[in-house]
Amino acid sequence: MTPPRYAVASSVGLRQKTSQSRRWCFFVGTSDKTNESQSLLTLRVHGRRAFRLARMSGLKYRRLKPSAEPGTTSVLSMRQSPRTAPPPLIEVRQLCFSRSDEPIFGPMAFALEAGEVLLVEGANGSGKTTLLRVLAGLLELGEDAGEILREGVAAAESQQALAFLGHASGLKLDLSPRENLRFTTRLGGLRAGASIHAALLSVGLDGFEDTPMRYLSAGQRKRAALAGILSAPVALWLLDEPYANLDQEGHVLVDRLLETHAARGGAAIITSHGMTSPAIRGIRRLRMECHHE
After folding, report:
1. What kind and span of H or E run contains 54?
2. pTM of the model
3. How far is the C-alpha of 278 from the C-alpha of 251, rounded, in Å?
């Protein structure tokens, strides 16, 4: 356990009536009250700037009784406020879903932090797609069906956008990949540092940027959809069977996109029926079983 951080302030000429500003010297480090001179960093500030610095640094402080002798030390003891960890990007609690009184999945509980990728596995009919559609808000939960939190806020009240890719690409067949991405980025925005051209190149559509989607193969359409996900300014990706219709090179591409997104502080939930094994470092797994006979 890391010991609390304190700071010691030393005042020179505390009782002397001079025009010179009082000087405060801060020694901030990991120490205890009996060894407050141990320090990692030394800063020199004047007058009330010392107190402002303490408040800006998130340090709680209290003033101790000053020394009676001029030129000696007056101590200001400060303790850093504990920093709480950020809430998970998404968390589900006792989540379950039924259709026509027939249970589809659940109850289940998990949380996904920034930088994590969760692989949801299961046979056909186990509820993988339904789970992602519920998490995306496309299917409404019934009463007592559990809880979904987005960064600590109920999903229904959350202002944080997410990216969802289903079995269909969601792109217009009469438009080219470039035109489709222009349309989607005007609606949802463009990730900082990204560009439509760079996104299309990164998914291997060099030379097909302006070809109408209806003339592209199923794998190329999937790549165009992935370029749209890559361009979106969101932290959470929900990808249903992202490896479908892709060759081995495409599988490597999806792994790379997911690892890069996680390294940027994003997170992703992806599904697979078990035919593909993602090669992603630190991937988490969730197994779903069929509820109906």
Report:
1. helix 49-56
2. 0.71
3. 8
Task: Please give the structure tokens belonging to residue 268.
Answer: 């992703």
d(CA 129, CA 43) in angstroms, rounded, equals: 56
d(CA 264, CA 115): 7
Can you tell me the distance from the alpha carbon of 152 to that of 147, in angstroms, rounded to the nearest whole number?
11
Alpha helix positions (H), 112-264: 128-135, 177-188, 196-202, 218-231, 248-263
pLDDT in tens, 168-210: 888 999 999 999 999 999 999 999 999 999 999 999 999 999 9
What is the Cα–Cα distance from 205 to 178, expressed in whole angstroms?
Answer: 10
Amino acid at 247: D
Measuring CA to CA, which residue among 258, 162, 161 is closest to residue 203? Answer: 258
Using N-to-C axis directions, what is the helix angle for 218-231 and 248-263, rounded to 10°?
10
Interstrand relation of 147-150 and 90-99 (parallel, antiparallel or unpaired): antiparallel
Rg (alpha carbons) of the chain, rounded to whole number: 28
Q: Which domains does the chain have, with CATH numbers?
A: 5-80 (no CATH), 90-287 (3.40.50.300)
What number of H helices and E strands is found in the chain?
A: 6, 14
pLDDT at 92 over 70: yes
From residue 49, alpha-carbon distances to 16, 46, 132, 133, 185 in Å are 20, 6, 52, 53, 45
Residue with tokens 């193969």: 217
Q: Is residue 246 within 8 Å of 219, Cβ to Cβ?
A: yes
